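User: Can you help me understand a structure? I only have the sequence.
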Amino acid sequence: QVQLVESGGRSVPEGGSLRLSCVASERIFNNLFVGWFRQTPGKEREFVGVISDTGVSNIYPDSVKGRFTISRDNAGNTVYLQMYSLKPEDTAVYYCAAFKVEVPAMCTMNIYTYDYWGQGAQVTVSS
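Assistant: Let's start by predicting it. Here is the structure, written out as tokens:
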């Protein structure tokens, strides 16, 4: 069972920056694709981005493209979500999620592909 723990969530002013971390318990961390999702009350969980097992590939939705960047440190079993130019509409609980691969795979925004989830980190952007 893979355990994921997010950290770094806090309140920031509009236009500010913030970095979230996601630490995985999985010994074979470099077999994991790791994505980020966010959710606000009453809405479905929204895809924010994903990074491949090797760190070579990412995909982002248009809503965050150019402002959010996902990177990973396989030696430290950690994935980062760096957020710039934050807007009030970025306010949400942010979740990291992962799925294992044993053969070459592609990044996906399909939420049902992700088997493991963290507990979430609250990000609040004030105007």
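Now, to help you interpret it: The chain has a mean pLDDT of 95. The first strand starts at residue 4 and ends at 7. Let me know which part you'd like to focus on.
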